[in-house]
Amino acid sequence: MVKHIILWTLKEEFSAEEKEKIKVGIKEGLEGLAGQIPGLMEIHVQTECLPSSNVDVMLDTTFENAEALKVASVETAKESERGIVDIETLKTTNQTLMTTLDEVMKIQEEGRARRQSAEEDLQRIENEMRDKLLEMSQSSHT
Fold first, then answer.
1. More confident residue, 86 or 37
2. What pTM, to 2 d.p., does this model score?
3. How far apart are CA 92 and CA 79, in angstroms?
């Protein structure tokens, strides 16, 4: 039986919210390996580490033997990187959403300007009509 522990510290460039999402992704991905890797007897992922520690994620595993650990190490490396890919997807999605919101705001501003212009035109037309009717009314009485 071989015990293997891995500690991760996420990059400081990530916000606290991004780190939480990454940690959730890593935890789900790694714990999802339970029962899928030959020789893996136990797997535990800790994302709430000690406040005095700078560690963000701890992977605690138990393997039947060293060969099983070797095989699993490759799978673990792949899963730990998946969280980084997921955050890149999140960033891209967020940027697309921000661009979409900017476009919606622009369309709304243009619509407001057109409505204001149409209201001014309508007021001008009403005034012209009223003046013409008033003129006609006065000329018919004279």
1. 37
2. 0.49
3. 20
Residue 98 parent element (H or E): helix 66-141
Cα–Cα distance between 141 and 132 in angstroms, integer? 14
Q: How many residues does the chain have?
A: 142
Task: Label residue 76 by pLDDT band (50, 70, 90).
Answer: low
Q: How far is CA 142 from CA 89, 131, 133, in A?
A: 79, 17, 15
Please report, for residues 17, 39, 47, 66, the alpha-carbon distance to residue 3 in angstroms, rounded to integers and kept in the order given: 31, 12, 19, 9
User: Does the pLDDT at position 118 exceed 70?
Assistant: yes
- Predicted pLDDT of residue 84: 60
Q: Would you state the pLDDT for residue 6? A: 86
35: left (phi over 0), alpha (psi -120 to 50) or beta: left
Question: Within its chain, how far is the Cα of 120 from the centroid?
Answer: 43
Which tokens sit at 138? 């006065």
